[in-house]
């Protein structure tokens, strides 16, 4: 079977070259051609020996994902729907802002965590994405944007693993992908500009700290175990105290001196004054010293069968004010790309409407004649 070169970090590429009888510097050349120059064909790689260029197509390929659709928002947000085979598709969203361009990437087709407020969780788990499928989202977006946007500046400055799936339940594929994002011969991104979001897979938070420490966002969503058990089922395995202990262990390795806590605002569920006060107690007094953090409040976007509603704006504002008054840095997620259903629970505080997804699914089926299951980024965290 041919090797997909998007599956390899630089060490993997070196091992691959070694198996072909090539020197290590060839792996750097290949890496740069693929990730920095966006080469799709080996005959484009002009500084590779001709004999190697001729040898490569028989043993490897650069496996881009098929684009099922691309939608451009009036606010500049771009959303891709990628086919990942087996009837599954995942979405990737680019969100431009004045001072940055953020790409939100999916790590799994579906999600096994099953958070109550997350449509992806309701859809169940299909499979882990491979390293190549995670990286292909960045590779495709990076080179598309370079080609189509006028700016000569780098357009993707930040990556957030906040698309569909729990990234740390797919750590075997995630970690090499992160290494490629950080590698100077790959995308050369700063650790501060790559964020992994987790619902609290405690052992893998420790592994992330030791193997590839990037910025960390934790989907908290509740200030006590009883409530979090009901919203984020993983809490029954790794309750809040263990999760916050893992955050404290993570901080010495982290590129930032705080953890971001994501908190989805659910009407009458977790948005009351006592919840804000419990949250403050947690982050200020855990183990006697608290957890340095920033709190990101995400207005919930309802989807059918969730049985949940978004907190009214004044309630979100009141909750935020309690945190701010206590000196905790707090933001309320803005909505982007609504006109293309690209607003993201993590990034923008808005989520895809499942009704729209069903309509799009029906349309795609009729257009492609294929059964396609859209597994889309409706996660709130
Ligand atoms: S919120 Fe995140 S961890 Fe929870 S079900 Fe959705 S994708 Fe999975």
From TrEMBL:
One of its GO terms (biological process) is methylation. Its cofactor is [4Fe-4S] cluster. Binds 1 [4Fe-4S] cluster. The cluster is coordinated with 3 cysteines and an exchangeable S-adenosyl-L-methionine. InterPro entries: Aldolase_TIM, Methyltransferase_A, RlmN_N, RNA_MTrfase_RlmN, rRNA_lsu_MTrfase_RlmN/Cfr, rSAM, rSAM_sf. Reaction proceeds by a ping-pong mechanism involving intermediate methylation of a conserved cysteine residue. Specifically methylates position 2 of adenine 2503 in 23S rRNA and position 2 of adenine 37 in tRNAs. m2A2503 modification seems to play a crucial role in the proofreading step occurring at the peptidyl transferase center and thus would serve to optimize ribosomal fidelity. This is Dual-specificity RNA methyltransferase RlmN. It comes from Hydrogenophaga palleronii. The gene is rlmN.
